[in-house]
Amino acid sequence: MKRKFAKxxxxxxxxxxxxxxxxxxxxxxxxxxxxxxxxxxxxxxVTPDIAVVSxxxxxxxxxxxxxxxxxxxRMSRVFAALKQAGIAEKDIQTTSVSLSPQYRYNNNEAPVIxxxxxxxxxxxxxxxxxxxxxxxxxxxxxxxxxINGPMLEVESPQAAQDKARLDAIKTLQxxxxxxxxxxxxxxxxxxxISESVDYxxxxxxxxxxxxxxxxxxxxxxxxxxxSIGVSVSVVFELN
Length: 239
What we know:
Elements: H1 2-26, E1 34-46, E2 50-61, H2 64-84, E3 92-104, E4 112-126, H3 129-141, E5 146-153, H4 158-182, E6 187-197, E7 202-203, E8 226-238
Antiparallel strand pairs: 1-8, 2-4, 2-5, 3-4, 5-7, 6-8
């Protein structure tokens, strides 16, 4: 019985020692010298390589089935035009399909259904922004009468973000060295680093095309440039 009790005490002592060691490892770094916290933002300008556009077909008819049939027929031509333009299936996604009654309202009378409106909308990703306007014009010719966008994106922003990080760190190191020199101190070490990435795709408004609107001119979409930035905060110890 004594031997079993001794083993229990020994196990409890070992667990307490392990917990203490773990607590010591997790303890925050102690600053003996002067604490200096600085912030800087690194920024890289890049050209977007993807345009996301919403395109769809809206049809109307006196009955629901007629509106849906007409919509399906025109959407089939739209999908055929997308395939002919070389848009990959993975870059086409249906975002909404709807059917709703249309009403006529008169004073002091109950609303009267005058017909139905069907809508089918897809989201398109153009990987060749220069050709996206040409494809949109082709879609309108095949029956698309509702277009919104584009949203311009950088498909893989990681490399630009890393460059922005390095630029921010270089700025912070130079700034810390400046403070240290001005105060007769030296930069001893980095205590902590944190960051905030502020990149988001840039929306560019495009007016909705009216139903059956003729396309008199070629649609052009300019990629331009976008800013990808990373804000970095660093705590230094000076002594």
